[in-house]
Amino acid sequence: xxxxxxxxxxxxxxxxxxxxxxxxxxxxxxxxxxxxxxxxxxxxxxxxxxxxxxxxxxxxxxxxxxxxxxxxxxxxxxxxxxxxxxxxxxx
Length: 91
Prior knowledge:
Layout: E1 4-8, H1 13-24, E2 29-33, H2 38-48, E3 55-58, E4 61-64, H3 66-74, H4 78-82
Parallel strand pairs: 1-2
Antiparallel strand pairs: 1-3, 3-4
């Protein structure tokens, strides 16, 4: 399974929902808090093209925010993304 990275803010309800979904699926993730470090926030924006948290990545693939994460789960597509080989990543 590729590394999952989630950029978050501690008071963000959407961040909480995204982490809750990943936790329920038993997915380990690297959480990066963007509130105290403008360089880290700039990294999130550069990687995702978005200014809002959360932003979720599976390997180098930008999955999106918590709404998109929930959509992928509802459509049965999230497991396939989570189980991609890291080398396959973006195609």
